[in-house]
Amino acid sequence: MSDIYNNKEAFIKLKPKGLFTVFIFLTIILFALFISTFKIKIYDNYQARGYVNNDGITLITTFIPTNINVEKIQINNKNIDYEIIENEVIIDEENYLSYLKVVLKTDTSYENKSIVSINFYYNKQRLIEKIKEKMF
């Protein structure tokens, strides 16, 4: 019986080794990720293609859904300065859809009559709110 008691005392006096340290480290990382979901704000994204008309002034024409309130635009994955020249609602009566024709003016030159990739960013929210929307 004293042998068991001595083993128990020896076991209690053992200090945790590497596994416990890894567990604490992972717990801290998970807690930091959880807290960051309350701080980080992200956008929803709509990707479209645009037609470039470069006759002295670079104009880019594209169509987007009417329910998007654009906050930020990237062309070919680069942030650029732009000015919205035209916002015109176009209705497709055959399919009962409405589009917004957007004409952008920019100082960045692109090849005339080319197609560019445009990212429209809208609806900026905290990450935790977006996760709640997807779940519920």
Mean residue pLDDT: 88
**N/C terminus separation:** 58 Å
Major sheet size, sense and barrel closure:
7 strands, antiparallel
| Unreliable spans | none
How would you classify the helix and strand content by structural class?
A: alpha+beta
How would you spell out the order of helices and strands?
A: HHEEEEEEEH
Number of strands: 7
Q: Which strand-content bin applies to the residues?
A: 35-45%
Q: Taking Cα atoms only, what radius of gyration do you get, to the nearest Å?
A: 28 Å
Overall spatial form: elongated
Bin the helical content: 25-40%
* Strand ordering within the main sheet: 4-3-7-1-2-6-5
> What oligomerization state is this entry in?
single chain
Tally of individual helices: 3
Describe the structure.
The chain has 136 residues and is α+β, with helices and mostly antiparallel strands. The chain contains three helices and seven strands; from the N terminus they run ααβββββββα. The protein has a seven-stranded antiparallel beta sheet.
What features would you highlight for this structure?
single chain; 136 residues; 3 helices; 7 strands
Write the layout of secondary structure elements.
Blueprint: H1 2-13, H2 18-39, E1 41-54, E2 58-65, E3 72-75, E4 78-79, E5 82-92, E6 97-106, E7 115-126, H3 127-135
Antiparallel strand pairs: 1-2, 1-7, 2-6, 3-4, 3-7, 5-6
